[in-house]
Protein: TetR family transcriptional regulator
Organism: Halopolyspora algeriensis
Amino acid sequence: MNDRSPAPELIAPSTRGNESAILNAALDAFGEQGFNGASMRDIARGARTSLSNLYNYFPSKSELLAELLRRANDEQLARTRHAANAEATTAAERLRAAVKAYVGFVVDHQVAALVAISEIRYLAGKNREHVVEARDQTQAIFEEIVADGVSAGEFTTPYPGDAARNITAMCSAISTWYRPEGRLSKTQLAEEQSRYALALLEARP
Amino acid sequence: MNDRSPAPELIAPSTRGNESAILNAALDAFGEQGFNGASMRDIARGARTSLSNLYNYFPSKSELLAELLRRANDEQLARTRHAANAEATTAAERLRAAVKAYVGFVVDHQVAALVAISEIRYLAGKNREHVVEARDQTQAIFEEIVADGVSAGEFTTPYPGDAARNITAMCSAISTWYRPEGRLSKTQLAEEQSRYALALLEARP
DNA sequence: GGCGCAGGAGAACGATCGTTCATAACCAGA
DNA sequence: TCTGGTTATGAACGATCGTTCTCCTGCGCC
């Protein structure tokens, strides 16, 4: 596996017959047409099954979206957390690792990352809460690293929370423009983006 | 008028009876429910007129969205361009002015800024082209300032285009979280954001 | 062999969608 | 005062929506 090879699937083949096919079809449909623009019939067609069979797997269209967003945000949180917890001597190193992991998810699962930020507004109730919580926890990882770096004198940015929010905003936006055939490979993009993040924090050279 | 007072309306009262009321109702509806989630009946209700009367002003729902996005992007471009063209001795000063203008638009017309980035995907054909062109021109202003600053040795960032894209991404994302009652006033936020932009460019101190 | 259940299909339900139509009120200019 | 365009309305159209209902198939298990 190299820099340009496909990433592991976000939606792994499941024990239940068509579950992963339905989730992937829903991801494509929501990504192309938005939650309200995509119909259950579109999703059924994409999953090569019947409309009514969708309801043997998910009780409603909203729950289908919720399941997608749960998986996406949980995976992004897990990746970022793992990177942030790795051995590192400085806050700058931890930040670089966290940014690379975050960007790695966005590039590996671009459609999922895009749907996660643009369709979350159509979730409500408990489903929304869980997804928002995962997102906030991911955000908190960056805030904590930045705050640590400021305490240690590595970063001189005055408002760690604001700076961290700008970093995640920059990195999430990658899902809106990245093209695999572009100038930068996944690894190069992640590297470059971590440089912007450190620069934004006014890291001491 | 101070820092917390309301901004001039993006949709000014027009000569045609209900045009501005319809546009404002459409802006609210699209902002709250998205293009496909909002119905023409919702918009008519918001504008306190009848469903069929909407079609005396706009030939279709798509054209209504297009008109909104045209106005929003044109206004943001005009503000940014004006700021970038102002007298300034350094690229850093021009960048600060441009960021403040851009952020100023986002805060003054938060819903319009949010709709402009999240609903542009539902435009097609000529309508889409015009809006994309205005957006690209705004982007180009930042790219040019950054490139100038790099040439002059003010900024040391290696890829002006990428850096500029990160700057506009950060500033556009403000529309997704800003609350007027928050810690920062409009002017303070614009100031702070321009500092992040300069830091990101690795401006010489 | 018969039972039960998960997985699958087509048809249909009521609701809502964007749009159109016929028609009426209003109002400035001849 | 008549007139022609603008603004407005409620009713209706065909299409499509999410969801449900009924029924069928295949298959492991006592």
Summary: The domain at 62-200 of chain A is CATH 1.10.357.10 (Tetracycline Repressor; domain 2).
